Amino acid sequence: MWSGKVNAALADTVSELSPGTALDLGCGEGGDSLWLASRGWTVTGVDISTVALSRADAEARGRGVASVTWRQADLETWEPEGEFDLVSACFLQAPQEFDREGVLRRMSRHVRPGGYMLIVSHAAMPPWSHNHEHEDMPTIEGERAAVGSETEWDAVIAEVRHRRATGPDGQDGMLDDNVVLLRRP
């Protein structure tokens, strides 16, 4: 179970955008979807976990939020209908085999002209991790390349951000996150 709170990087980067339609990839228990909806967005939250979506739906009902549609789907095979003003992929990373780059590329095709693609990812393992052998951690360059050529997108934000976090055993540490906000011209 997660906190139910919005991802800070999403809130920071999207708060100034005009609300429209949003696609929240790997929405989990719905923290980002509900935050977007509370700010006027019409959201489709997609996750593979029916348990997470059930919790998200219960929270939405409890808050009286009706502008979120929950969709259970495997992002490696699912294809959304239409275009969106915002496609968000926050921490869309998995420990098992997952065609993340393919998902990002395919989903980026559903950003309408003038719309945005937000990708937030772990740039490094946390300091309390026992497994520091992750050579395949996403990079800013890799995130940008995953959604197509640089001529297809204007980079609004493309940086590594640091944030303080608490580990599972109470450890205090700094985490590095890639934050990439692209706009389709």
UniProtKB/TrEMBL annotation:
InterPro entries assigned: Methyltransf_25 (IPR041698), SAM-dependent_MTases_sf (IPR029063)
Record SUPFAM superfamilies: S-adenosyl-L-methionine-dependent methyltransferases (SSF53335)
Highest rank taxon of the organism: Bacteria
GO term, biological process aspect, one: methylation
Keyword Flavoprotein tagged: no
UniProt keyword annotations, A-Z: Methyltransferase, Transferase
Ranges for domain Methyltransferase: 23-115
Gene Ontology terms, MF aspect: methyltransferase activity
Pfam families per record: Methyltransf_25
Protein name: Class I SAM-dependent methyltransferase
